[in-house]
Design goal:
alpha/beta, TIM Barrel, 8-stranded parallel beta sheet, 4-stranded antiparallel beta sheet, about 35% helix
């Protein structure tokens, strides 16, 4: 009997049973939420973004489902602060699943503070949120400046030994920012985050979100994310986690052949009617696809679109 193609992969030094993990921003900050994400079958868990101290988010409405299949959100990086890390890491260890702490901050020192706490508690890796499009003073305001990206990554990488992954959003300097992150010591990149957007109620004649602007996720951003992954991999051959609009196995495959070694799934978790089968079904289809093309493992096709 022919052996099934392997879906094992590694990214930024993290060994994974398969390439599908969750995107930061879903569920909450307790061990119950870690258990729930693990039950979906992800190969690693990425937490919501954590800042050094508790941060209040925006008042509702903060999330809108759009008619084009996308989601618009402006949560505002609300979180309970770094004290929640220990409980989540302990639960992930019990479940035997890698856990990546998403780290946010308004300064280099704040990023480093949370990163050090994550390492102290035994996290597998850190994902620096340099791309949130709706939290003033955070995220994309840092990520769109290559020199700021370099400074934050350099500072964090100098005080931690676990892998540092820089999550970058869409900007006209994303290629340069990616290079600076790698130069500063990032072990990998997550590309991309949600894209700044807005929705207006044509009857009240006002923006729907209280923050006015939010982050667009889901299928509408997928082709953009694939393009960014393709360009960054072509330039740097970096370890990349593709993120943006993954709703079916073909989206995972597209990211991989563009250059991603793993992918993150976000909006599709909310809209899926079969959440506990969602990952398993995609993995079955990926194996069938690799078998049909004659490949023994998914790592053989990483970035292959660059060569053909």
């Amino acid at each position: 009997m022919d052996q099934e193609p392997s879906l094992r992969t590694s990214v930024a030094g993290i060994e994974l049973l398969h390439p599908i993990m969750n995107a930061s921003g879903f569920l909450g900050y307790s061990k119950e939420h870690i258990r729930r994400l693990a039950s979906y079958g992800f190969s690693a868990i990425v937490t919501k973004t954590i800042t050094p101290y508790p941060k209040k988010g925006y008042d509702p409405p903060i999330i809108i489902a759009l008619s084009n299949g996308g989601l618009l959100n402006a949560v505002g990086l609300e979180n309970p602060g770094k004290e929640c890390i220990n409980e989540m890491v302990e639960e992930a260890k019990k479940l035997g699943i890698p856990i990546i702490i998403s780290v946010g901050g308004a300064t280099e020192e704040e990023f480093a503070e949370v990163a050090e706490e994550a390492e102290l508690r035994g996290a597998t890796a850190i994902e620096l949120n340099l791309s949130c499009p709706h939290a003033k003073g955070y995220g994309i305001e840092i990520g769109m400046d290559p020199q700021k990206v370099f400074s934050v990554v350099k500072n964090v990488a100098s005080v931690t030994k676990i892998p540092v992954i820089a999550k970058l959003g869409l900007s006209d300097k994303v290629l340069e920012s990616a290079g600076k992150a790698l130069e500063a010591g990032a072990s990998g990149l997550t590309l991309i985050n949600t894209i700044k957007a807005m929705a207006i109620d044509i009857y009240s004649l006002k923006p729907i979100l209280t923050n006015v602007f939010g982050g667009l996720s889901g299928p509408p951003i997928h082709p953009i994310a694939v393009r960014v992954v393709y360009e960054v991999y072509r330039e740097y051959k970096a370890d990349i986690i593709g993120c943006g609009g993954v709703t079916k196995w073909e989206d995972v495959a597209e990211f991989v052949v563009a250059g991603a070694r793993a992918v993150e799934v976000g909006t599709a978790i909310i809209f899926s009617t079969t959440q506990h089968k969602f990952v398993e079904e995609m993995l079955d289809s990926l194996r069938n696809w690799l078998k049909m093309l004659g490949f023994k493992g998914i790592e053989e096709v990483v970035g292959i679109a660059q060569k053909i």
